[in-house]
Amino acid sequence: MALLNVLCYPDSRLHKVAKPVAQVDARIKKIVADMADTMYEAPGVGLAATQVDIHERIVVIDISEEQNELRVFINPEIIWSSPEKKAWREGCLSVPEFYDEVERPAQVRVRALDVDGKEFEVDADGLLAVCLQHELDHLQGKVFVEYLSILKRTRISQKLKKRAKELAGER
Ligand code: GNR
Ligand code: NI
After folding, report:
1. What are the tens digits of pLDDT across the range 109-154?
2. Which of 37, 54, 105, 131 could cysteine-pair with 49, CB 3.0–4.6 Å?
3. Does the annotation count 135 as an active-site position?
4. Cα of 47 to ligand 2 centre, how many Å?
5. In sequence order, what are the residues at sequence separation of 6 or more whose Cβ sits closer than 8 angstroms to the Cβ of residue 54?
6. Which of 41, 65, 84, 135 is flagged as catalytic?
């Protein structure tokens, strides 16, 4: 088991655009395993590689109650979004302790590779749809607070910067 450090907003590395994975090999499988450990430890329902400073298109998600249904998405793409939208109160491991409503398409269809490099598609709604869109945004360098007003985002930024400073001072 290996835990990875999760970047905290505001951090310019959260805005890097991830590159596609060329081959699902042992190196990628190790990253997937470490990302899953990190997500479960947090705990979170999803994690994008960008958040652990790895800029490759890799996402892990587990929305199950028991946290025993790991889903792996390598090179994920949204191939369809519903015209209907839904607002959901989102949080993010990179924006600790802040939650706010974001409106997104209610349903999406995603195509990706699994951990064996095999292509699959999934139709998602509810939390899975929200989580997939949230994670795919991370891979594009986008954090959910960018959907909020400038005022809210500035406040979040300032509070997190202050908190990071206090934590650094304690050491
Ligand atoms: O753990 C998480 N919960 C969550 C709740 C509502 C909408 C999105 C999420 S994703 C988040 C984990 C995370 O930051 N993934 O990038
Ligand atoms: Ni997030």
Report:
1. 999 999 999 999 999 999 999 999 999 999 999 999 999 999 999 9
2. 54
3. yes
4. 6
5. 4, 31
6. 135
Ligand 2 ion: Cβ-proximal residues, 5 Å cutoff = 92
Mutate to test the pocket of ligand 1, among 73, 93, 131 (most ligand atoms within 8 A of CB): 131
Residue 135 near ligand 1, beta carbon < 6 Å: yes
Structure tokens at 120: 């699959």
Query: Measuring CA to CA, which residue among 41, 89, 48, 86 is closest to residue 67?
Result: 41
Task: Give the C-alpha separation, 117 to 100, whole Å.
Answer: 35
Residue 101 CA to residue 91 CA, distance in Å, equals 9
Phi/psi of residue 65, nearest 5 degrees: -60, -45
Is the pTM higher than 0.90? yes
